[in-house]
Structure formats: C-alpha cells, structure tokens
Amino acid sequence: MIYLDHAATSFPKPERVIRAVERCLREVAGSPGRGGHAGVLQANRLVFTARERAARLLGIGDAARVIFTSGATAAINVALRGTLRPGDHVLTTDMEHNAVARPLARLRRDGVEVGVVPHDPDAGRFAAALDAGRREGTRWLVVNHASNVNGQALDLEAIARWCEVSGVRLGVDAAQSAGLLPLDVDALGASWLACSGHKALHGPPGVGILAVGRGVQIEPLVRGGTGSHSESEEQPTELPEALEAGTPNTPGIAGLGEAIALVLEEGVSALHARAQALARQLESGLRAIDGVAVWGPGASERAVPVVSFTIVGEDPSLTATRLEDDWGMRLRVGLHCAPAAHRRLGTFPGGTLRASPGPTNAEVEIDGLIAAVTELAAEAR
Ligand SMILES: Cc1ncc(COP(=O)(O)O)c(C=O)c1O
Prior knowledge:
This protein is 41% helix and 15% strand.
C-alpha cells in the first residue's frame, strides 16, 4: 500500500505517538482538573506539557491561550460563533474548506455579512483585493492559510500587516499548514488560529487546537464542567477553562503532545522540505504527461505538499479506483470538502484526484504514481 493522502490525515502515525496514547490509556487513572488524587495530577501534567509544547510551536506567549478541541473544525466553529455578531462584516477567501464556509453560511442567516476575495499567494495582489472588499463595518478577515486542494498558501505576515493598518482582526485556518509552515500567532497579532492534530502535526484524530490571540475574548459555544469554579452556574471566564467544557480527550492530547515534541525536534522547515520536494517531483512529473491536467502550487516556497490532477475526459473516481486496485495507491478523490476552491479552479462538480505526500513517503513511490498515471492517461487517449 502506498499512502498519499496525508492532507486528509497523516499515516503511519509515529511509533512514539502511538505509545504515548497507549501509555495514557493504560497508566493515567484520572481526569485532568477533576479533583486532586495522584492520577489527576498525572493527567494534569500530561495536558500541561502538551499545552506548553503547542504554545512553543505556535508562538503563543501564555500556554493558557492554547485550547484543545476535537479538531480544526471544532476550533473554527468556536472561534467564529464566539466572536461574530449580527451586522459584523467578515472578509474571507474563495478557497475555504467547509469548516469555515459552512459556519459562515449559517452565521449569514443570523445577520453576519460575508465578503469573498480571491485566495492569492501574491501579497500585493491579495492586499489590493482586501482593500477592494473592505467596507465600513469590516471587523474580521478569516483565511485558509494553505489550500487543501492545490497547496497554495497565503503570505500571513503581509496579511497581518494589512489587518493591523486596516483595524481588521485576523482568524486563520491553519489545518493544512500547522507542522509544515512556521506559525507565530503572537508575532502576527492574529486573534485566533485553528489547527488539526491529525494531519501534518502527526497526532491522532479527534484532537486539535484553537490558539487564542492576546487579550481576545471568545464567547463559549459549549458550557459545562471544567473542574474549576464549580460553585458558580456561570462558565469560568479564564482560559483555557472558558473554552474547554467537559472531560477532555486526554489520550488524544497525550498523543498530540508527543507528536508536537517530534515536530519541534525535527523542525517544521525540515519536515516541510522533505514533503515539499516530493510534491514538486510529483507536480513536474504529472505536468509532463500528455492528457493530464494539474492543479498544484508550482514552485512557491510557501506552498504545502498537495497536488490535484485529473486525467482529461476521465471521471477522477474511476482513476482513483484503478490506482488503488491495480497499484495499491491511496489518494483522495472528489471535492475534498472545499467546493468553493473547485469552483475557482474550474473543477466543480467532478473534483480532482489529490495526492498529498508526507515526510515518510519515498521518491520511488512518487515515481510509481507518475508511471501509473502515465499508463492510465495513455489508455484514456
Ligand atoms: C483547510 C482545512 N480546514 C479544516 C479542516 C478540518 O480539520 P479537522 O479534520 O481537524 O476538523 C481540514 C481538513 O481536511 C482542512 O483541510
């Protein structure tokens, strides 16, 4: 089996991540923040360590502003629902994942106004589009840092400068970039940034992060037990408790904490360089095949390793079935939960085949995919 679907979820998970999850399930006899016996203290330490590591990775000065969620989707929902009010105008891009697009569509029905600008890696063009889309009452810019359809990534530093000058607050969906591109929430002055734990951070599924900017207030979406201030019927206002009601996913957090330690040790830029070299190899190989259309980020330094393609005139799900049945290759097919991006690229509604290499893939696997697509494209001609 050749796994090329790391943008959906990374595989295989590192051995030490698996061991951390297992150790937590076997050995941690307590729930973090709930009481004070030895197992609780052990669980507290584990969650604290993971929070500190995440803060280091994401440039958050105070680890209390690291909120553990069930994934990027939950983090984005908490952030959008907890900050946007009727009458607010929010700018977003035309390459958003449904994790952003659907909550915004729902908020529109509550009176939030939404403007859409083209997702553009060129900082100057993007700023010009933001200037054109901005109006009185524009309070937020919510952007997909890196596209899960073609790997294209925005220049966050330039965007943060535009936000500061324009008095607009910034929210970032970093589901595809966390673990691959440098992120520094406090230096950016971003109000929030959402991460997946199970993609390029190499953690288990079911855990993610909402990084909250300095001084930012987010109204809780979920209220309940926090293990603190239990005498009050009000949700505590301090972070992280304010946004972490209910028993946390301690094994998931243990796995994510170990995964982030690994990312910090290996270094985001080394992990990115490895996977991105494979994506470049794939993109140029596919572009050389007659009858194959390719949507990749090209040579951009800032891109993430995601390449979409189709065999012209062939249903991509047929190609995906052949690649899996005849070559044992696992790729993602369809709209990848980002229909707007496909409208933009002209691949709606059929979608594309998406290959997303990870740092554990080998050049020979990429060569194998290029050879398989060459054969299938020749058959289709
Ligand atoms: C750009 C983008 N945003 C959000 C998500 C949702 O992430 P999660 O699975 O952690 O909820 C994904 C996952 O595919 C994604 O690619």
